[in-house]
Design goal:
Chain lengths: 280, 341
Amino acid sequence: MTQVAPAGPRSGRRVGQVESITVSRFAPFRSAAVTAVNLLVFFVVWELVARTGVINPLFFPRASEMFAALYHGFADGTIWPQLAHSLTNFLVGLVISAVIGIPVGLLMGASRIADLILSPYVWAMTSLPRVALIPLLILIMGFDNSMQLTIIVLSAVFPIMVNCMAGVKTVDPSLLRAGRVFGTDRVQSYTKIIFPFTLPFVIAGVNQGIARGLVGMLIGELLGGGGNGLGFLLNRAGQQFDAPMLYAVLLLLAVMSVSLIQTMRWLEQRAAPWRAGAAG
Amino acid sequence: MVYVGIPRAEPPARQDSTPPDPTAPDPTAPDPTVPDPTVPDPTAPDPTVPGLACAGATSAGATSAGSALIEMVDVSAGYDNRRERTRLVALRDISLRVGRGEFLAIVGPSGCGKTTLINMIAGFVTPLTGTVTVRGEPVEGPGADRAMVFQDYALLPWRTVERNVEFAIENRRGRVPGPERRRRIDRALELVGLAGFEKSYPHELSGGMRQRVGIARALVGEPEILLMDEPFGAVDAMTREAMQAELEKIIAETRQTVVFITHSIDEAITLGDRIVVVASRPGTIREIIDVDLPRPRFDPRHDIKRSGRFGEIRGHLWDLLSGEALGAGAGAATSSEGETR
């Protein structure tokens, strides 16, 4: 961060300078190390508790069994095609949601009329539990993959839309006034003020879209009966009393969602550094 | 900056001269009644107003006495509340002339309509009655001849310091072409003491530094008029003094006409050639005071605030405003709407 040096004797004005400070070389790795140890302890405790047998191993396998199931699942090709199916579906659904949700949300934020017309439907769809749509979607599309994709889009598109709208609506009015003072026309006030201001909201919306979209993906696969995807694996493992595989898929889902959310968080900090840890 | 302090070859304005604009109403015409059900009719107009409203012609500090750059004639302004079908009158019977090169300070209690006044000159607010003219032309919106410095800085947080300054000269109106643009930005940053901070982001700077960016942005387009709406209201007291001194120095160099809103009496006296005291509810001009203190006001050899004349003006302003503040207390809740921006 920039430091302000005392007024220089030469010009009598403040001169900025950045001073270097000494920081341990290992500082960036410290939190990663803590997380690694933390997880290691977690799995060891899990293993030990499971080995005592106080909990029925039918639904509480040892951690080592879970990792074994994960390994064999990848080795014999039971997991990978399902994971690929789910990931592809999810990413395609997310892209469709963004392509629809961002422009519509921006339009709703910018145009009072668009907002008036669209908002009842958007809010109804935002608050409606997505599971309720499954029977209807199956009726319309059957057990086709398009049904699974549709439920992902319906889950993810509305949070994206609502956030984009909120971004445009909460744009700092004094920035718009500054724009008028300094000669922006209508188009420029959008491209130079409103859209940049909205960018972090768009990212936040996509973030929520990811969380909701994952839920949509799973309910589509669990209830849609399409016979593929991670949800199908979960279902089958449950029916076969294959607890290690059940836990393995859950672990995969956790890793998947955490890494997606972390990617977005990283993106958010890159896109809007002034929002994170602004000094004074 | 290009402005030099040569007065234009215009005849000195007469005390009762109407502006050249034929659409402007005759100031001697009967007082226009403001269509407003919520505010009772004013009593007889303040007798101090008409005589003092033209004091710009004799202002000690104005570099070109006589040529009014900004002129407000019988202006009133207000805000409609459509839900309650009422209109809050923020300003009434404002007649004011600002001379070319003059530094006009406006003081008054919060909610008195100071911001509305400056917003009319900026072109954000259209008066209900009366006319606001700049160089004789009615104000019909913001223009490149008027730049504004905002209390809350209003910088674009995603832009660096230099890109924020560039913002003022890159848009459709007031656009400056490439190489000249670079030169202007560097000059403006130099002027406010921000050379070396070109690549910093606003969130990396202190409040005072951010407002320097705001001032540089206002200066870079070389506007004739600088509108400053409590620019130092959000910076700490020490920084505030330093920035006042620098502002005086900058203005001495650029020779701009400044309309400066403040609620600090000391700030008004140390900076202003004249001080307009605005009374509240609805806002009217209570008095216009000539500040006959020598410039530069910020002289390291002697502190102007210790001079007897400063104390006199200060005491007079204090008497005016403390009465105002007490009087305005009763309606403070509603009067704050008068300053919504």
